[in-house]
Amino acid sequence: MLQIYSPSRQEAQVSAFLVEEMKSLGFQAYQDAVKNAIGILGSGEKTVILLGHIDTVTGQIPVETRDGKLYGRGAVDAKGPMASFICAAHRLMGERNSLGKRIVVIGAVEEEAATSRGAQQAVIDFRPPDFCIIGEPSSWSAVTLGYKGRLLLDYRLEIPLKHSAAPGKLVCEQAIDFWNEVKVWCDKFNHGQSTFETIDPSMRSFNSEHNGITEVAHLIMGFRLPVGFGADDFKDLLLHTAGTAQLAFSGGEAAVRADKSNGLVKAFLRAIRENQGQPRFKLKTGTADMNVVAPFWKCPMVAYGPGDSSLDHTPEEHIEITEYTRAINVLESVLRYV
To answer: Known catalytic residue: 32?
Structure first.
């Protein structure tokens, strides 16, 4: 799977590969309308959905095994967790007729894009399950309960061109003033808050140009938002602060924080301890498909998978093979217990 380069919107090949692999392992497998790879095992009153993603960020990394580690783009985020889902479910293949539950494995497309098209399709195609596990790196002995929300902002300011020595601020200076004012507001909001309760602004890109008549500054900004934050009021603030600039918003996802008093979490705690681990809970400052599906499915839900998330999107992305196999063991037990 790592050998197949699959950045967002280029997942068709890896999706087809996974469908054929799951068929060969005994799953009922197919591609859905958006090229998600779907594998189904067993039947019964309960449904467990394992929702991973098969797209990656751009940037190819040579696939190799070195010092007990597997390197490659997506090894951590999130082909490693996706592969662990398939392997864990396959271990129950011989018991599929007596499990009393249906296990649905979904390899979603476009998780790394703001569209989350694969997760959106899953919400359309599948009724709320009894339990859902999102495939993201948490480390084999930890469970992720929540993710911050997200808002993307496209800022464009166009003004008449003037000499750089003329009075008044140039377009780039005005754009920087906007960024600084927003940053100051966020810093004030964040004072005294914990990491999961803050607004985290970032400048994704900054470009300027002129055509001899006007000059334009173009910023793309991102905001990580806390649970319960009023995004609409924040948009109004940004529009007011921007003055004559044009703003466009996209990628809006509400933050999510799951409850830990349910059978799914208890199953993970038991399975991790049985594998000689000390269970931990995590809250992530990024976003995931959990943000997309949680408001619709409203079932016990966590994110779990092997790997160190600090390696996400980096040139050194790799997963420890022992970590990977331990995660499969944990997932196998969880699927039995729920």
So the answer is: no
